[in-house]
Amino acid sequence: MWFKSCSMNFAFLNRMKSYRLPWIRPYSTSRSTVDSNEVKTFLALAHRWWDEQGVYAPLHSMNDLRVPFIRDNLLKTVANHQPGKPLSGMKILDVGCGGGLLTEPLGRLGASVIGIDPVDENIKTAQHHKSFDPVLDKRIEYRACSLEEIVEETAETFDAVVASEVVEHVIDLETFIQCCCQVLKPGGSLFITTINKTQLSYALGIVFAEQIAGIVPKGTHTWEKFVSPEKLESILESNGLSVQTVTGMLYNPFSGYWHWSENTSLNYAAYAVKSSVQEHSGPEFALKGEREELRAEASTNSGVREELKK
Ligand SMILES: CC(C)=CCC/C(C)=C/CC/C(C)=C/CC/C(C)=C/CC/C(C)=C/CC/C(C)=C/CC/C(C)=C/CC/C(C)=C/CC/C(C)=C/CC/C(C)=C/Cc1cc(C(=O)O)cc(O)c1O
Ligand SMILES: C[S@@+](CC[C@H](N)C(=O)[O-])C[C@H]1O[C@@H](n2cnc3c(N)ncnc32)[C@H](O)[C@@H]1O
Ligand SMILES: [Mg+2]
C-alpha cells in the first residue's frame, strides 16, 4: 500500500516537473517584432524629435503625465531615495526610445537608462541631444537595436522597462511582451502607454488626428495594430506580470496638454510588476488547480511534503 501510493506520487511529481508556464518558455531569437514599414515612417522623421512644436509635440507634452507616473510607481517599490535624484541606483530600459524624449527625464531623475530603438537615425538624434548635457551623457546609453536582439545578454537586468507609444507599432506583441518580461529583474516594473482599439480611436486617433487636424503625421498609426487594455492585460498576465494599474489619458488638441482620465477608450497607461518568484522546474510552477492538488496530497504524504519544501 505504502509502495503503491509512493510510486503514484513520484509519477505525479514528475508530471508536475514537466509543466512550464508560457512566460518561462525559452525565447526563440528567430522572431522579430520590427515592422519594416514602421521603420520607414520613423526614419523619415528622425531629425524632428526635439522640435517641441513639431510632429512630436504630443509626445513632448505627454511627459507631464508619464514621467510622474513612472517615477511615483517606482518610488513605491523602494524604502528610501535620494532627494533630487529619486531614481538613483535604478536601471531602466526604454524600449523604442525614439529621440530620447522620455529617456532624458528618466536619466535626470537619477536612473541609469539604456535607450534602444531599431531606427539607427533615431539613436543618432538621441545621442547627439544627450551629448549637450554631461550628466545625462554618463547616465544614458543608447543602442540601435531591437529588444529581441538584446534579450539574452540582458536577461533579468532591469528594475524597470518602459515602452511608451511603442506597442501599437510592433508586430508580434506576445513576443515583444515576453522579451520585456525576460529582461526585467524579478519584481521589476513594466510601464506601457498606447492607444486603445475602439471605434473612437479610429475616428479621433486616425481620421481626425491624422487626416483632418494633422496632430500626428498621416500614416503614423494603423488601427489594426492598436491594442485594447483587456488584450494587453491578458498578454501581461500570461507572461507572469501582475497588472497594477490601467488608466486613461486624454489629449486636448486645443491646449496641447494631456489629462488623466477614467476613460481608456483612446490613450491609456499600464503598469505591471513581474512576479518575484524565480524560474524553477519544481512543483511551485504547477498550474493553480494542480498546485492545490499537490498541496492536498502533501497534507497526507511526507514524500510530497519534502518535494514541496525544495
Ligand atoms: C471623423 C470624426 C468623427 C471626426 C471627429 C472630429 C471632431 C468633431 C473632433 C472634435 C473632438 C474634440 C476636439 C472634442 C473636444 C470637445 C470636448 C469633448 C470637450 C470636452 C471638454 C473637456 C472635458 C475638457 C477637458 C480637457 C480634455 C481632456 C479634452 C479632451 C477631450 C477629448 C475627448 C479630446 C479628443 C480629441 C482628440 C482628437 C484626441 C486625439 C485622439 C488620439 C487617439 C490621438 C492619438 C495621437 C497621439 C497624440 C498619440 C501619441 C503619439 C504621437 C505621435 C506623434 O507623432 O506625435 C506618434 C505616435 O506614434 C504616438 O503614439
Ligand atoms: C511613437 S515613437 C515613441 C518614441 C518614444 N518612446 C517616446 O515616447 O518619445 C515609437 C518608437 O518605437 C520604435 N519602434 C518601432 N517598432 C519597434 C519595435 N518592434 N521594437 C522597439 N521599438 C520599436 C520606433 O522606431 C519609434 O522610435
Ligand atoms: Mg504611436
Structure description:
Residues 287-296 have a biased composition (Basic and acidic residues). One of its GO terms (cellular component) is extrinsic component of mitochondrial inner membrane. Mg(2+) binds at residues 165, 168-169. S-adenosyl-L-methionine binds at residues 66, 96, 117, 164. By secondary structure, the protein is of the alpha/beta class. It has one domain (34-274): 3-Layer(aba) Sandwich (Rossmann fold), CATH 3.40.50.150. It is 41% helix and 19% strand. The protein has helices spanning 2-17, 36-44, 57-75, 103-108, 120-130, 134-139, 147-150, 173-183, 199-212, 229-238, 288-300, 302-309; strands spanning 91-95, 112-117, 140-144, 158-164, 184-195, 241-252, 257-261, 267-274. An eight-stranded mixed sheet has the order 3-2-1-4-5-8-6-7. The longest helix has 19 residues, at 57-75. The radius of gyration is 22 Å and the shape is globular. Residues 55-56, 58-59, 165, 195, 201, 203-205, 207-209, 215-216, 220, 250-253, 259, 266-267 line the site of ligand LBOMCSWG.
Spell out the key features of this protein.
eight-stranded mixed sheet; Rossmann fold; 8 strands; binds the ligand CC(C)=CCC/C(C)=C/CC/C(C)=C/CC/C(C)=C/CC/C(C)=C/CC/C(C)=C/CC/C(C)=C/CC/C(C)=C/CC/C(C)=C/CC/C(C)=C/Cc1cc(C(=O)O)cc(O)c1O; 310 residues; binds magnesium ion; disordered C terminus; alpha/beta; binds S-adenosylmethionine
